[in-house]
Automatic annotation (TrEMBL):
Domain TonB C-terminal: 44-110
Subcellular location: Cell inner membrane
Native source organism of the sequence: Hymenobacter lapidiphilus
Protein name: TonB family protein
NCBIfam families: tonB_Cterm (TIGR01352)
GO cellular component: plasma membrane protein complex
Gene3D superfamilies: 3.30.1150.10
GO biological process: protein transport; transmembrane transport
Annotated keywords: Cell inner membrane, Cell membrane, Membrane, Protein transport, Signal, Transmembrane, Transmembrane helix, Transport
GO molecular function: energy transducer activity
Pfam hit, one: TonB_C
Main location: membrane
Length: 123
């Protein structure tokens, strides 16, 4: 199984009291890169981005992950699977010294192995 994926790890938040990713065993980007899988039935010609939105609650737990921009049902399912693997990876945001819930939008870019990456990067 060949996989080629670019991870766009710009996390967009709804206000300044942002949760922080822990540096557990691996940095955040490396953790995602090592755990992402190209679904076997996903066409190798697919390329694009999935946006997953989720909440990091007051305890640092991920809640309510949802696809806000779909690419393909199999890519969407992989993006949701990855977000669910991030359990325990976040410290809650703080506002006025108190833990608060924070919403993230995480883009994950999928570039199929049959695509010319130079064309994709120029978009």
């Amino acid at each position: 199984m060949h996989k080629t994926l670019l991870l766009s790890l710009l996390l967009l938040v709804n206000f300044r009291a942002t949760a922080q990713a822990h540096n557990n065993e691996l940095p955040f980007a490396d953790y995602l890169h090592q755990n992402i899988r190209w679904p076997d039935s996903l066409p190798r010609s697919i390329s694009g981005r999935v946006l997953v939105q989720f909440e990091v609650d007051k305890r640092g737990e991920i809640r309510n992950p949802a696809i806000v921009q779909s690419l393909h049902p199999l890519a969407d399912a992989e993006a949701l699977r990855l977000v669910k693997l991030l359990r325990g990876y976040f410290t809650p945001g703080r506002r006025n010294g108190r833990p608060v819930s924070t919403f993230f939008t995480m883009p994950l870019s999928f570039i199929g192995p049959d695509n010319d990456s130079t064309k994709i990067q120029g978009k």
